[in-house]
Amino acid sequence: MISRRSLLQQAGFASAALAMSELPGFAFPGEWLHSQEEVVPFTDVPENFTTINAQTKRVSGLDLRQLNAFLTPENNFFVVAHYGVPTVDAATWKLDVRGRVANPRSYTLDELKKRTRAQRECSFECGGNRAPAILNRMIGNARWTGTPLAPIIQEAKPTADALEVVLWGADEGEEQIRTEKFRQNFARSMTLNDLAKSDAILAWEMNGQPLTAEHGFPVRVVVPGWYGVQNVKWLNSLELSADRFMGRFQARDYVTIMGRQNGDKTEWVETSVTKIRTKSMIATVTRRPGGALSVFGVALTDGTPLKSVDVQIDEGPWVAAKIDTPPNPYAWSWFRAEVPAPSAGAHTVASKAT
User: Fold this and answer.
1) How many structural domains does the chain have?
2) Same domain, yes or no, for 44 and 14?
3) Contact at 8 Å (CB) between 236 and 216?
4) In a 3-state reduction of DSSP, which class is residue 154?
């Protein structure tokens, strides 16, 4: 059996524990898994593991053990909605471009759809995907259709002091700051420099279909190579600002703390979650007819070309995996490695990506 545990997300590691036994075959695309192979089950996946959120009753992720398609179906793509799912009327919806701009304006959905059309095939990962109870389920790969974001900002003519664009969503909730309570909308920001270097779009389709309410209908942001939180759903405003935005989901939550050594002192530095860090995740392990194990999984980057994925059983040697690299660098890569069969009993399998 194999269980999936995150070891060092920043280093691109993933691990799993396994115990040798026989289970019915598990179907993947033919070039990756032969029908006669048998699944070696994970030991650290609870029997009651589910991708359904107990409170919302909505899908909260993808069970990688069931991965059998390059594009994640909408109903298996993880959903995070900190303030719930708002009801938005597409007929009256508009997108305001405002703030530190010389040419503020609003767009209807029809006006956006008349602009240059663009597609982005990319993977999302939640910034909290490494938690033990999550079991890497908050990940997905989809094809998004919309229009490029950067030209919309350029046409608004940002003023010389404009530093960043704040992406405001229609979803809102109450936040307590010190002793006061405030009604706030979900928002994230990115610098104009980061925006110019990105392939961000305003999307209204997912896998060829209009966005569902859960995935941000009628329009959401898609920033390839960035963690899921940056891809603001139910977008209704783009605000150009001369100041750094410091909302809850920018400066208090979705913050990474990392230690760095300065002489004999460790300095702990907090930074906002932005671009995806190279990471590999094991999906399944199967036994080949001759007894060897086939380890299958996915790897993500921020668009930086994936160099390698290696797999290890217990403390044995690292074995290079075969990588199926897609034409789009922002989409996930699939990998598979064949390793010698270990002895009967429980074992740990790990992967690392660079």
Assistant:
1) 2
2) yes
3) no
4) helix
